[in-house]
What we know:
The structure holds 2 protein chains of 2 kinds.
Chain A: H1 8-13, H2 19-29, H3 33-49, H4 60-70, H5 83-94, H6 101-119, E1 123-127, E2 129-130, E3 138-144, E4 150-155, E5 162-167, E6 170-176, E7 178-180, E8 183-188, E9 196-201, E10 204-210
Antiparallel strand pairs in A: 1-3, 2-10, 3-4, 4-8, 5-6, 5-9, 7-8, 9-10
Chain B: H1 9-19, H2 25-45, H3 48-64, H4 76-94, H5 98-106, H6 121-132, H7 136-147, H8 152-159, H9 163-181
Helix pairs in contact in B: 1-2, 2-3, 2-4, 3-4, 5-8, 7-9, 8-9
Amino acid sequence: MSAHLDDDAELYALGLLEPESRARIDAHLATCDACLRLVGEAEETALQLAALLPVATPSPQSRARLLAAAGEPAPVRRLAWAGALAAALLLIALGGAWLQIGPARERRHASELAVATLVHSHFLHEAMETRAGAGGLAAKVVYARDGSWFYVLVDRAGGEIDVDATIAGRRWLAGAALREGDTATLLARPPARADSVELSRDGNVLASVRLRYR
Amino acid sequence: MADSRGLSRDDDALAADFIARRPDGLSRVYERYAALLAGVAGHVLGERAAAEDCLHDALLRVWQTPDSYRPERGSLRAFLVACVRNEAMSRLRGGGRRVERERRASALETVTLEPVEPADPVDAARVRAALARLPGEQRLVIESAYFDNLTQAQIAARLGLPLGTVKGRVALALRKLKVELAVEPR
């Protein structure tokens, strides 16, 4: 059996070890329950530090890519037993709503969070300037006076919308806006005050706005 | 119903499905934890594409490695966060951001947590309070490691300490933080 861990349990949990050291520890953890518990305890503490980080919304493509790589069927393929025709009929009957079961849960959580945040904050708002090629898109950014959050609201989104901000001259990814019909929203909590917010699709900028704190 | 670790029966059921590699286990894990995990990766890597790649590779690896997670270790959530953070830190070390991080390390920037407003303000306030109760030197190493994403060598350079001292101080600080987090707010 390799040596037990000492301070490496905490360093492992915080991501401070090089891959070679981690591989050595992983091999040890496979056979040593005492050290496994030490690392687990350190990871539980490190997890709580993550409570201070803003959450992000990965793109829907990211989820699909992972499930495809893992060989896990995407939700639509789970109905294969019923045959393509039956699936199509079901889709029509339910208006496609069943496809939204997973995202709906995420959306409900996001919506509750947005309402709670707005109700308990002082905020400002700015309309976004749209670019050529944005179609009929219209958007507004509601943002906290202290810069701790901003909330993007998009009407006639016309597809997926990526939201980015500029903070002290550097780009910061906020995430993909959650779509509901042809509207989309995103509540973002930047690490510092955002100077501007930008909407894009496939790398093409659709709209932007500079946030003025006053 | 959540227990003292903030975990619910849903988390336990999810972990059981993950361990058994049930067909929709990965999908359900993604649905529940992706926002948290993407936030962890995004904090380290700063770019959406890089963060999503990191999340993809880390989750795929643990899913495809038998016995990568055992419940004796702790919660699945804490394990996945550690996996994603380790993957992100590896990418950061190997990527083109070294120069920027070294600049930040040498500039002795003051770490300020106040502007960060996370998803659960109550939980965040509890963690901030626990951090604030740490001795200053311990708080500084935690902030340098976790929030500034510095390596051990960079922390040593920033604080002017031997590498061995940094290692011991980080470990001590995290253990002390665990104690402080267990203190009930008065």
